[in-house]
Amino acid sequence: MNQEMSEEEKIAYVFKVVVIGDSAVGKTQLLSRFAKNEFCLDSKSTIGVEFQTRTVSISSKLVKAQIWDTAGQERYRAVTSAYYRGALGAMLVYDVTKRQSFDHVARWVDELRAHADASIVIMLIGNKADLLDSRAVPAEDAVEFAETENLFFFETSALSGENVEPAFLKLLQEIYDVVSKKALDSSNLVKPNGGLLSGLKIEAAQSEVSEMKNLSTCSC
Ligand SMILES: Nc1nc2c(ncn2[C@@H]2O[C@H](COP(=O)(O)OP(=O)(O)OP(=O)(O)O)[C@@H](O)[C@H]2O)c(=O)[nH]1
Ligand SMILES: [Mg+2]
Questions:
Q1: What is the pLDDT of residues 160-171, one digit of tens each?
Q2: 3-state secondary structure string, the chain?
Q3: d(CA 32, CA 58)
Q4: Higher pLDDT, 146 or 196
Q5: CA pair distance 65, 55, nearest whole angstrom
Q6: Residue 62, φ and ψ in degrees, nearest 5
Q7: In what order do the strands lie in the sheet with 11-20?
């Protein structure tokens, strides 16, 4: 007897992606635009860590993006290693109207290089591109930095939604290309319900969230 596969069973991969960057650049709003197509103008600073998921089709395979979000503020930085563990991709966000948030991007790249897997795919995002009159970072500066550091780059607006989908999909496609070239023994890959690939599972991720919540409590 043929049984229909559930959506969960059809998922070929779960990719963990982290969103990083200074406080108030729009990390949480970018994520909620991509995961739920929602935007909130008076969103509060994120406390601790959270993740949201969205399943998309990449190269004809169902891929669940598990996207983690945390505060940009220094005082929560004790979460660092647990936050980056198993991440295959990073969205490194700055605010095109805040020069300082772009000047800090190099530090965030250093942090990724120090704590994340060497093959992590990094997407540089200049967010709030809708604020045309208050731009403080020319796109050319970011293009140059991205080329030097080997990052992908998009300007987005979480408010209007412009480029949010293309940026996330490009990141997921690049991760897909990286992992399909890698040997199947990578511990960062998930084949739900058994199979050849094993590693981080959603349930495990939930417990890591609690682990990080404890960490962030300790660090205050
Ligand atoms: N105009 C405009 N405002 C935005 C955009 N994205 C976010 N915002 C606003 O910027 C503020 C900060 O957004 P958040 O998403 O909370 O910023 P965050 O990077 O998550 O900040 P932390 O959690 O403190 O690290 C909020 O008032 C958002 O409404 C955008 O694309 N355009
Ligand atoms: Mg936030």
A1: 999 999 999 999
A2: CCCCCCHHHHEEEEEEEEEECCCCCCHHHHHHHHHHCCCCCCCCCCCCEEEEEEEEEECCEEEEEEEEEECCCHHHHHHHHHHHCCCCEEEEEEECCCHHHHHCHHHHHHHHHHHCCCCCEEEEEEECCCCHHHCCCCHHHHHHHHHHHCCEEEECCCCCCCCHHHHHHHHHHHHHHHHHHCCCCCCCCCCCCCCCCCCCCHHHHHHHHHHHHHHHHHHC
A3: 20
A4: 146
A5: 6
A6: -80, 125
A7: 49-58, 61-70, 11-20, 89-95, 121-127, 152-155
Q: Which of 29, 47, 91, 160 to mutate to test the pocket of ligand 1 (most atoms within 8 A of CB)?
A: 29
Quote the ligand 1 centre to 152 CA distance (angstroms): 21
- How does residue 220 score in pLDDT terms, banded at 50, 70 and 90? very low
Residue 52, pLDDT > 90, answer yes
In the CATH scheme, what architecture does the domain 10-212 have? 3-Layer(aba) Sandwich (3.40)
Summary mean pLDDT of the chain: 86
Contact predicate 194/184, CB 8 Å: no
CA of 143 to the centre of ligand 2 (A): 25
- Measured by CA distance, the residue closest to atom 8 of ligand 1 is 26
- In ligand 1, which atom is closest to the CA atom of 21? 19
Domain boundaries, the chain: 10-212
